[in-house]
Write a structure and sequence with these properties.
The model has no long low-confidence stretch (mean pLDDT 95). The termini are far apart. α3 packs antiparallel against α4. Helix content is 77%, strand content 0%.
Length: 99
Amino acid sequence: MNELDLNSILVIVLLIAATLIPIWLGLRLRKTKPRVLWLGMLLCIFFGPIGQVYVKGCIPWILILLGVMIGVQMSLPANFATTIMFLASPMVMFYRLSR
């Protein structure tokens, strides 16, 4: 029961990659193509709140979006919650890059 088999190691590697690749991509694009609206919104569509890493000062926005997403999942039906979660992060990115 406490053994790490190949499946467990594969899941751990995939979880680490799924966390680190969006962060790395956002930080790299922040340096090479800073403040491009369509690029920031595309990152937010693909990676959700982690896409906010593309613009500096991202930690409060990531936490706010995660709180909104948890609250929406707990209080609304699944169809509405999915739509709001899909649209929330790109809308915040639009706000941050257009001001």
